[in-house]
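Kindly inspect both lines:
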Amino acid sequence: MLAAMAPLLAGCDEPTSAVAAAQPNEPEVSIVTIRPQPRALVRELPGRVAPTRVSDVRPRVSGIVIERVFSHGSEVKAGDPLYRIDPRPFEVEVQSSEAALAKAVAAFDQASLQARRIATLTSQRATSEAENEKAIGGMRQAAAEVEGRKAEVARAKLNLSYATIRAPIDGVVGAALVSEGALVVQNETNLATIQQLDPIYADFTQSVTELNQLRRSLESGDLDRIAPGAARVRLVLDDGSVYATPGKLLFSDARVDANTGQVTLRGEFPNPKRELLPGMYVRVLIEQGIDTDAIALPQQAIQRNGGGGSEVFVIKEDNRAAVQAVRTGSMQDGQWFVTEGLKAGDKVVVEGFQKFVAGDKVRPQLFTEADASADTAMARRTEQTNR
């Protein structure tokens, strides 16, 4: 009987083995354990590069340009000559003024001698007091004439010096806007533009709503203020690279743009290599506060549900995955700030979402950046293969 039933018993064991083989192993998932820690609140804002100082070079006298001294795009110092206007009309004016001064000095000398003679005769009762007063008045008029002629000489020499047009500030001079032989008009013709590029400004904007939220967070104690001099401002260039040298925040505008609801802020940055040029579009990273117990998760840990809300998978004590709704703040350096929904010690899934569904039992493994880099490289190779 046993021999006859052996095949039947063997047939009964086959489905049991098949069921056991069909049961999947617990999938491995990468997790991070929540550990709140102080983090700087960094805002990324759009901005434009602007020169520190700008000066339009204009002539202070009218005349014909006879020479351009500078090279296009060169560095100049304040006082360096840029253009020369024909000086001969101004030289003639100086000579004429000096001749008029000499004539006035001679008239003054004569009036002085006459006043002394009259004074002597008046003391001897040889002439009237009226004559003496008239002589003194003539001498004073001659002295005033001398001073007037001296001023004319000084003005003529000043105009002669203005015939050499000099750089008003240090900086980089742009293209020459006039050439030799051109007639330039006093205070009207624009000859060139000089821009000071080291240091350089970055003007950026932030919504007044964000600024008000920041102020309320600082007042309530949710954020700590950054110590004076400790806050850094960094630039992200249009190619995504970060400008090497950090800058400092200079000021925040005291008014709100009525059209955009934005407030303008300005940062100052060293620019010794002239990498930043006026008009460049940049993104500004500015530290505006410190969250003393911030919770940050890698970007891939945050999932979106059908209603557009944020959620994560957390691992419970029995190693089963559960969905947890969260509220996110800003994203910095590839990590989301989580403001609500998580606490210290929670285990959040970062990689391996395709291996399980909510309620499944999993085997958690610690997540590392090396794993993330490997997964990214694998995904890129798979994409290239599919192409």
